[in-house]
Write a structure and sequence with these properties.
Chain lengths: 342, 511
Amino acid sequence: MFTNQNPTKDLKFTVSEVITLECEDFEQAMVLSNPIIEEEKQWQTYLNALALLGLERWFTERLSPGKIHHNLDSSQEEIGHFQFGKFKIGIIAVEHVLNEFISFPQEIFLKPKHLADFYIVAEVMEEEEEMLFRGSISQEKLLRFTDNYRFKSSEIDYLIPLDEFDIEPNHLLFYCNFLQPNIQPNILRNNCAKISDWFQNIFESAWQPLEALVSPELNLALGTRCVSEEISCVSEEIKRGKLINLGMQLNSRRFIMLVTVTPEPDEKRRILVQLHPTGKDEYLPPSVQLTLQSKAGKIFQEVTSRSHDNYIQLYPFKGKSGKKFTIEVSWNDTRIREEFEI
Amino acid sequence: MPDFQGRGVIASYSHQNRQTSTSMSLNRNAVFMGVLSRYWKMFRIHPASEKVGYQTDGITLAHEFLEQLLLKSEHSPSCKESFETLLLSYFKAQNIQIDLQTRALAGLCLRCAVSEPILRACQRIERLFGGGHSFKYRDLLPFVLNDDGQHLIILDDNQKTQFILQEDGSLKPNTFPFFSVEILQSFQADHPTKMSLKNWVYFKTKQHPDIKKFLSDYGFKKISDWALLNRTRSKQLEPLSTRDRLLVEAFHQVYRRDRRQQSKGAKKCPDPSSEQLQEILSRLQKHEVIISSEEQLFKDLKQVAKQLRQYEVWSNRECLEVYNKDKNQYEIRSDLQQEYKPKIEIEHQEIVEFLHQKLRAILSQAIQKEVQHKIQQLKKSRKYAEKASQFIPGLQLYYNQGMSLKEIAPVLGMTSWDQTRRILNPGELLSKIRTMTVQNLLEEVLKKAQEMGLTSIPPKPDYLNTIIQAIEAFADQEVFQNASEEMRTGKNRSFKSIYAEYLRAYLSQLI
């Protein structure tokens, strides 16, 4: 005499999707949150980074390679995000859901273009070194909800009931695999680095001076020989490096992308892009690929590491101010794209 | 069914009506009785049922009473509210026109109707706690799912006291009041907030004093005081004194900062060190909070953590309301418990057959791929590479011998339960195989549906959604529900599901 229960619903009632976090995740989350000064924000960045790392891995392991574009830097924003094919996925990292509401900062609704296509609620259990997938919601549903309900004007955040979220993580996977985004895809993969700003001494937070990247605390020593050469640089040159994380977590590697820009006549700039190993690694692993692409994805140059390369680099190239290009680093099944505007 | 059998009043009541029913109305009745099953099926606690801790029984008296009501009235069960309202008006009737028997029987139907929401509320509470808790929803059931469905209950005129209506028509106080009846007692259908009965059940279950106490005792049991302090935000600090708030803030400044730098794998957050306590003390001094010693500060922090273990600190009630722009008023969230809509049917028999045909092949493919994938992943891992060869033997011990991860750890020379779990992780493997199975079925079905002219590719979101749910339900029913349940069974488990069978078969090929 059992009632006709929905087995799927019952299954999910008692089994939440648990995603384990590994030591490497914590190390990386620490590095990403270190530059943040304000304590509460620093802790949130730390949680955001953990959630991003866990979820990106969760998706990567379940998808055909190359569909996920990491964006760990976004952990420093209020809501971290990454790109899944054409979809932008926002990650809301929380430490509990006992009040059954998920808060969205009001300001994200002020810039609808920046809204993600889907949002995921991730409960990070720092002490247990695990996280739970708590649910996902599409932008459309989120907006429908916020349209219907007005919130008290004093509230800084929109509170969306947890029930509005779909608790089955597979659904998001399937939607992204089988649907076309019905809105314009977000091209904000990684923030585009503006090299012209670099000459005004304005740098995106991810692009660090070399001293910051060789800091022993971060355990990220560039190959020593090469660094001493690099630091004694020509005065007009600008050198900035960014930490790049590639690979699935159990097997992830960190690299430093080093960009050296030298001004040339006629508003042109000469650009040299290198990829270095980090930490104790003396060599890059074999078959890491570095490519220079046009904005539209056309490949201009590529170089692949062999078994004992200390670093690899693209031939220096020149471009006029305002021109855009993309550098892609790929290794095994994962890739990261960095966009630049000269 | 033993319930109330052989009571004169009921027997004649139903008998009389059955004679008058036509075949037309019987058909209509049969359909409606299915829809109305929640009014005559009761979820009752059943500790012997190891998996779920409850069972569902049809309550004959409630069933018969409903049949009567349907035949007698023009009430259509499609209009749920009106039916519920009718039952409530009978149960809570204060005029003599409604006899005690009818009141009690209407109440019995309503007690059935709230039994499932009570169960779901407990399951939901468990799920909300996520990790870190050390209880199962089954532990909550004795507090709230205590209606045995064996007695007819009515309320006194003040709606305050429960009485048992005995066979001879006399009343005696119910010395063990049922929570289901308490919910009905306090429910006001005409309250301006318009909370549904289901939501009221959820609300009352969460507010049940024994549940609250239990959750305060066990809800955060696995979390250290320090982790609990770490996860505390301004919302949770509100009920604390200013001094305690400053304590937590200073603790965050120091402990959270350092926590990020600690190497992980040690699990629990360690006690704050002497240096950390000193730093917290000096930060507090700036806010004119003077604490005499490190020891005292340590005790005070522990005391704050104790307060934070109260369930109420984390689950606040104010959010029950949301503003409805159309009606220009605040109202109770309608979504507290979403109703299950059993609409997911695939209409085309051809597709159903197709699913059955494909399932097994797709399942064994998914098993093969995910097992191989996991081995590759372990081999590449810095931390677990040397244990990669243990994966197959480990899974075999788990699925062939029924050994627990704890028992497997020493056999395979692993250092801890946690390490074993992270390497073998049978739950994650199951979940990945489920994902791949559903995804591949989905792909096949979409192709098939396109051939049949049922959809375009890419499909429309609504169509995809329906198909996903139907395929998921199908795959879970056929394979994954059992596979997941047998994994959750405690001791002496054996794996008999199709999933386990297929997995074992594949593993034996690999050896």
